[in-house]
Amino acid sequence: MKNLENSYRGKRVFITGHTGFKGAWLSILVSNLGAIVKGYSLPPPEISLYNKIQSSLEMESVFGDINEFENLKKEILDFQPDYIFHLAAQPLVRESYKNPLYTLNTNIIGTANLLQSLQGYQKPCSVVIITTDKVYENKEWIYAYRENDNLGGYDIYSSSKAASELIVSSYRNAFFNPEDYHLHRIGIATARAGNVIGGGDYATDRIVPDIIRSILSNEQLTLRNPEAVRPWQHVLEPLHGYLTLGAALSAIPKKYAGSYNFGPVNNDTLTVRALVESSLKMLKKGSYVVLNEGEPHEANLLQLDISKAIKELNWIPKYNAEEAIQITLDWYLKVEEKKNDAFACCMNDILEYYKTI
Ligand SMILES: NC(=O)c1ccc[n+]([C@@H]2O[C@H](COP(=O)([O-])OP(=O)(O)OC[C@H]3O[C@@H](n4cnc5c(N)ncnc54)[C@H](O)[C@@H]3O)[C@@H](O)[C@H]2O)c1
After folding, report:
1. What residues line ligand 1, using a CB cutoff of 6 Å?
2. Is the CB of residue 172 less than 8 Å from the CB of residue 257?
3. Beta bridge partners of residue 30, listed in sequence order
4. Which phi-psi region, left, alpha or beta, contains residue 333 (left: φ > 0; alpha: ψ -120 to 50)?
5. Which residue in 3, 11, 40 sits closest to 23, CA to CA?
6. At 161, which helix (H) or strand (E)?
7. Which domains does the chain have, with CATH numbers?
């Protein structure tokens, strides 16, 4: 944590998507590193991690749409960030089947709006764009995807994120070329992480929130796609990766202006069914039923090769999947059943995570 403090203390950090699950955790983390933080997002849903922690968060928060270019640009220029973490997105595969145009606009044009806002920016800025493991053309092969594998996307969410990678690459070539860094002083990297779990996710259509909702309401859990294999990780793992990448990009922009996978070590992947069975075993309650009719297509097998992040960023996952599940369930039990303070529970997880890093 000391290394990160050296990079972020007193720096100005702009986070899009701060009212979301990952954004709220990132806001706590960066504030805790001593940064001056501003968030730009849509207002959170009533039941959200952000609403549970916001009274303890010391940061500026603006509710705005990433699709409104002038508004976004004004908020960025007013704040004068040293770092930007771009998380704002429509992040759900199933939602992208229902609202394809909104997903495409938000994820592709929203990213372009952010980068366009930085044209003519007058100070150095390191920008980390958060995409996903789903940016790769999924061949359902047993090998893990590397950063230089083909991009693609069967569903709209995946292709919107793959397209946002192309947009980033074009902006980086055309306007923020690392070779001309001394002229524009903007470093841009993309971060591709897999499915994250952790306390405080209340999104619909995500497996851990679904498990918790089923337990709290005493209803049977419905599983779609039970045999899908995913690289589950505790949310702090990729967030630590994003911060490490941002710090490296700021120190040596030419070297780190690229793409990085963040995921579990090889073979630490689980099917949705295995994750659910582990969770119900740990909780000692609950049951599930499989529903496999009329479901939209989702990738079945998805693994990331994280050699580049390990070698270049010295980033290594700390928890295996079982540990990540346990920490996550503990958070929900403490907050939802014992009514502990959510911010304190997040801080507790953060301090535990950084004990040995
Ligand atoms: N959660 C995961 O497992 C996972 C995995 C891989 C990648 N990601 C990526 O990480 C990022 C954050 O995901 P999350 O899980 O926190 O999602 P989330 O839905 O909890 O949060 C999304 C955030 O984006 C904001 N947002 C959405 N549309 C917006 C708009 N039009 N204008 C401004 N803000 C808008 C929301 O207000 C919210 O703050 C996303 O880019 C997502 O694609 C998430």
Report:
1. 17-23, 41-42, 65-67, 87-91, 106, 130, 132, 193, 195-196, 203
2. yes
3. none
4. alpha
5. 40
6. helix 156-174
7. 2-195+232-267+303-322 (3.40.50.720)
Amino acid at 128: V
Bridge partner residues of 270 (DSSP) = 230
Q: How far is the CA of 182 from the centre of ligand 1 (A)?
A: 32
pLDDT of residue 295: 66
pLDDT of residue 356: 82
Rounded Cα distance, 132 and 195, in Å:
8
Distance CA 327, CA 176 (A): 40
Q: Are 152 and 158 in contact (CB under 8 A)?
A: yes
Testing ligand 1's pocket by substitution, the residue of 42, 190, 192 carrying the most ligand atoms inside 8 A of its CB is 42
Paired strand residues for 229: 271, 301
Can you give the pLDDT at residue 291? 83
Q: Which of 145, 129, 12 is nearest to 78 (CA)?
A: 12
Closest CA to 242 of 19, 10, 33: 33
Tokens encoding 77? 């220029």
Cα 188 to middle of ligand 1, angstroms: 19
Nearest-atom index, ligand 1, CA of 17:
39
DSSP lists the bridge partners of residue 125 as 186
CA of 285 to the centre of ligand 1 (A): 30
Structure pTM?
0.96
Of ligand 1's listed atoms, the one at least distance from the Cα of 50 is 39
Site to substitute for ligand 1 among 96, 108, 132, most atoms within 8 A of C-beta: 132
Rounded alpha-carbon distances, angstroms, from residue 260 to 62, 182, 190, 263: 29, 23, 6, 10
Q: What is the pLDDT of residue 287?
A: 93
Q: Which protein residue has the closest C-alpha to ligand 1 atom 10?
A: 87
Ranges in the chain, pLDDT < 50: none
Distance 68 CA to ligand 1 centre (A): 17
